[in-house]
Amino acid sequence: MKVLVTGASGQVGQDLVDVLEGAVPAGGSANFQSSLQGHDFQVVGVSHHDLDVTDSARITNALERIRPDVVINLSAFTAVDRAESEPATAEMVNAAAVGLLSNACEIHNARFITLSTDYVFDGRKGASYVETDTPNPESVYGKSKWHGEQLCSARDTIVRTSWVMGVRGKTVGKVIADRAKSGESVKFVLDQRGSVTVASDLTVALATLALNPPGGTWHVANSGSATWFEVAQEIGRLCGRDDDFVTGIETADLRPQPAAPRPRRSDLDTTKFTQAYFALPDWREALSRFVGGLPA
Question: Could you list the active site residues?
Answer without folding.
Answer: 141
